[in-house]
Amino acid sequence: MQNSRSLALCHYWVAFGLFLPAVLLGAWQMLMRSPLPAPLDDPDAYYASVTLHGTVMAYVLTTFFAMGFGYAITATSLGRPIRGAVAAWIGFVICLVGTVMAAATVLAGKASVLYTFYPPLLASPWYYLGAFLLIGGSMIWVVLMVVNMTAWKRDNPGRPVPLAMFAITATALLWAWAASGVEIASSAGPTPSTAQASSSSNHSSPSWWRCRLCSPCFRFPPLWKLPGVIAAAAGFSGGSERCRGMSRWCWRSACR
User: Fold this and answer.
1) Of the residues 14, 77, 137, 151, which has the fewest C-beta atoms closer than 10 A?
2) pLDDT tens across 5-28, in order?
């Protein structure tokens, strides 16, 4: 049981250890988009922080917390150590390596692709490989949830599966289904054909996106203006005129 406890705590430490920096990045981004002065007035750092914040919040935090919570539920609700503990630790290491790989790529300035990874912007292949390892390692957790539930049921015929164990196993299966799209997309990565198509389009330029996403109309648009804002971001109207009302740093660095 001690091994199961350590396994769950390690996942929690990674999840919440990265959660706090991601929250601070989000607060800094709000300052950058506000009229208030912000430290490190750098658009390149801003867009790198958007990608890092999104990756941590959308994938790293949820993945490690769900895995740690699943292992804790398995040990406590079934009342016995986790089966496949070695595989669980291997999955943890794979997820951790993928996280470090993706974060290092973003910090190196090779993956500023908005919140997580948005086409047609392309990141370094190392970023997509990191995301692939992170999600792929969590699939080991999915298998272990099913294995532990079925093993307990086989050892306890006639007894209902504890509700908490049933719920976390169902959650794991839903996670596998929902995360499969990320796994497919990250495994495809920036192929030569997509890179060529993106390079031939103005929409693939980070400056093109920055020019629109920094516009004041994108900060807090009224609800009835959202269709027009979305159309402007897609390039259907506005052009360079929409850049004229931007904040000083955005106009200087993104729209020149």
Assistant:
1) 151
2) 899 999 999 999 999 989 988 888
In angstroms, how far is the first alpha carbon of the chain from the final one?
A: 60
Residue 239 gets the label, from left (phi > 0), alpha (psi -120 to 50) or beta, of: left
Question: What mean pLDDT comes out for the span 77-101?
Answer: 94
Concatenate the DSSP letters of all residues of the chain into one string: -HHHHHHHHHHHHHHHHHHHHHHHHHHHHHHHTSSS--SS--HHHHHHHHHHHHHIIIIIHHHHHHHHHHHHHHHHHHTSPPTTHHHHHHHHHHHHHHHHHHHHHHHTTS---TTTT-TT----HHHHHHHHHHHHHHHHHHHHHHHHHHHHHHHSTTSPPPHHHHHHHHHHHHHHHHHHHHHHHHHH-S-HHHHHHHHTSGGG-HHHHHHHHTSGGGTS--GGGHHHHHHHHTTSS-GGGGGTTS-HHHHHHH--
Confidence band, pLDDT 50/70/90 cuts, at residue 219: very low
**pLDDT tens string 25-70:** 888 888 877 777 777 777 778 888 888 888 898 889 999 999 999 9
Each domain of the chain, given as residue ranges in start order, spans 2-191, 205-254
The mean of the pLDDT values for the chain is 76
pTM: 0.70
Q: 3-state SS of 75-129? A: HHHHCCCCCCHHHHHHHHHHHHHHHHHHHHHHHCCCCCCCCCCCCCCCCCHHHHH
> Token pair of 46, please?
């801003």
